[in-house]
Amino acid sequence: MESSQNRWRRPGAWIGLGIFAVLVLFLLFYQPVEQYLMERIPQIHFSNILFWFASVVAIISFAISHRQSFKKNIFGQFSEISAQELVFDTLQIAILAAVILCAGATIQAVEMLSEHLMNDGQLITAVFGSRLLSVFVLMLMAILFYLLHRVVRAYRVGWRRGWTPPGAVGRG
């Protein structure tokens, strides 16, 4: 924890982050890159870019979290306890990636529903009902995955009534 805080105090980390942001913005608005993506990946369109962004965030966060878990549990001291912690970490990471994917799909569904309402203007149609149902189902799935994450976390640290899990004290 200490090393990650010190890393962001150095100007090199901020310069690298700024260069990365400029590169991403350049690629976002550069027409040949957009054309290349449209030709090479036929199912990607800018109408569903929110879900693609959430997918990239979920994949990157999964990879980074998994690497940190392996670094802590495998490359440190390996024992039966660390193997069990690795399994719980992997399960929690996968569930949180599912929450990110469901949240991204929900945002995309809300955007599609809003676009339908702005373009057509008709409120009571089958398309409106199906899009509203998809928003509801995706929100329900995201909530269920989050609750599953909480259950796995509570099982991992111990289940005691009226007990606050570690890391939750002092927030607010």
Description of the structure:
The protein has helices at residues 2-7, 11-29, 31-40, 49-73, 80-120, 126-157. It has six helices and no strands. Helix 4 packs antiparallel against helix 5 and helix 5 (80-120) runs antiparallel to helix 6. It is mainly alpha-helical and 172 residues long. The protein folds into two domains: 1-44; 48-163, no CATH class. 77% of the residues lie in helices and 0% in strands.
Total tally of structural domains: 2
Cα separation of the termini: 20 Å
**Which value, in Å, is the CA radius of gyration?**
21 Å
Whole-number mean pLDDT: 76
Global morphology: flat
Largest sheet: none
Low-confidence runs:
none
Oligomeric state? single chain
* Structural class designation: mainly alpha
Share of residues in helices: over 70%
Count of separate DSSP helical elements: 6
* Content of β-strand: under 5%
Order of helices and strands: HHHHHH
Quantity of strands, as a count: 0
